Amino acid sequence: MLCQLLAQHPEIHCEGHSSPLCNTLLGIRRMISDDQFYLSQLDNSFDTSYAHLASAMQGFLRGWNHDCQKKAVVDKNRAWLHAIELLLHIEPEAKLVVCIRELGQIYGSIEAQHQRTILVDFIDHLADFDRFGRADMLFAKDKIIGAPMISLHAVPDLPKDVQERLYFVRFEDMIEQPAACMSHIYAWLGLSPFEINPEQLEKGIQESDSHYHMKYTHKQSERVVKPKLHDIPPRIQAQIESACSWFYQQYYPGKR
After folding, report:
1. Which pTM was predicted?
2. Are 88 and 111 part of one and the same domain?
3. Same domain, 153 and 236
């Protein structure tokens, strides 16, 4: 939803689907760090060799959208928060907009979609778990909810100047006040004032859902629609709030 709303601004280029750019840059770092020819240069010409690498990675980053003529480019990938210091090292002017949502409702949305597609397993085979076990697994550090939570948890440890490049917006606020939220985000991004019409949105490219076995859908709508609240079993909700108390303290202080 956030990408669709960002794309409404005429000064933003947003392709809408998840991008491999961050993964590719991380792959370059892993590959070059094991390259014997590169490593052999570091003893006697570290500064020059390191500058070569920085320039090459910056060139790759900027070249990805080489044909874009707009003021801002949106690159969608949850890994950017994990790699924010790498990103700012090669592109100091980058900014990151992070959308968050109440965790029980994230779990509820995934579980509801699983029940609609129960004959198909998850990509990481969670269908055989009971609901409590599946919720527990979804919050594991290498799973769909748990992995980005690690990056969120690490935000307070980042230097202040890095944190100033991050903007956190709650999904619930975007639903309740979409025009006001997006106007504030546009201003933070340094773009011209613009007010979206929540009742008339342009739709972009539909992202693939089959890649994730139809468990995590990427629906777009012509208007902002408030989703129905999912009824979360009390035991599961209590476990989520207990295990992620820091999240609620930081982003939903009135919840607990």
Report:
1. 0.92
2. no
3. yes
